[in-house]
Amino acid sequence: MAMTVGGRRKGAVAEINVTPMADVVIVLLIIFMLVTPALDRPEGLKLPASSKSPERKNDKRIVVVLRGDASAWLGRDRVDSLGDLLVRVKGRLQDRPDGVVWVEADEHLPYARVREVMDVCRDAGAQQLVLRTERRLEG
């Protein structure tokens, strides 16, 4: 409730105090900012940490995901073999003139497996490979 001090009005003022509403909106904004990056990552995938992590903002990008069980996924579709991955990535690169392929690999995978998949993407015609990591807070 608002009050006037030293004014001519007496009694309650018919103005809405928006401070509590602004506090709630700010808290919701912070919650959504923290939750949204987690929605972008496949379930069960733990990316390696880095202080300078590129953000994936566009769902139209070509994303190859390597899960902890060494299974490969192209977007949300499971890929059975590296040959199948080569054909699918090559097909998707025809629609994308920038030639960028994002690779998201579980931090517990051996580097040799990640390197294999990166070589397949390069053979498919990828101009640039982006290895996505989890953003680590410095401090």
Share of β-strand residues = 15-25%
Which structural category do the helix and sheet elements fall into? Answer: alpha/beta
Rg, alpha carbons: 24 Å
Q: Major sheet, described briefly?
A: 5 strands, mixed
The N- and C-terminal alpha carbons lie at a distance of 41 Å
The total count of helices amounts to 3
For the largest beta sheet, what order do the strands appear in spatially? 4-3-2-5-6
Helical amount: 25-40%
Task: Look at the structure and give the mean pLDDT.
Answer: 78
Order of helices and strands: HEEEEHEHEE
Which CATH class of the domain at 49-135 applies here? Alpha Beta
| Total number of strands | 7
CATH topology of the domain at 49-135: Nucleotidyltransferase, domain 5
Question: Could you characterize what this model shows?
Answer:
There is one protein chain. With 139 residues, the chain is of the alpha/beta class. The protein has a domain at 49-135: Nucleotidyltransferase, domain 5. The chain is 35% helix and 19% strand. The protein has 3 helices and 7 strands, in the order H-E-E-E-E-H-E-H-E-E. The strands form 2 sheets. It has a 5-stranded mixed sheet with strand order 4-3-2-5-6, covered by helices on one side. The chain has a two-stranded parallel ribbon with strand order 1-7. Helix 2 (82-95) crosses helix 3 (111-123). The longest helix is centred in the first third of the chain and has 21 residues, at 19-39. The radius of gyration is 24 Å and the shape is elongated. The two termini are 41 Å apart.
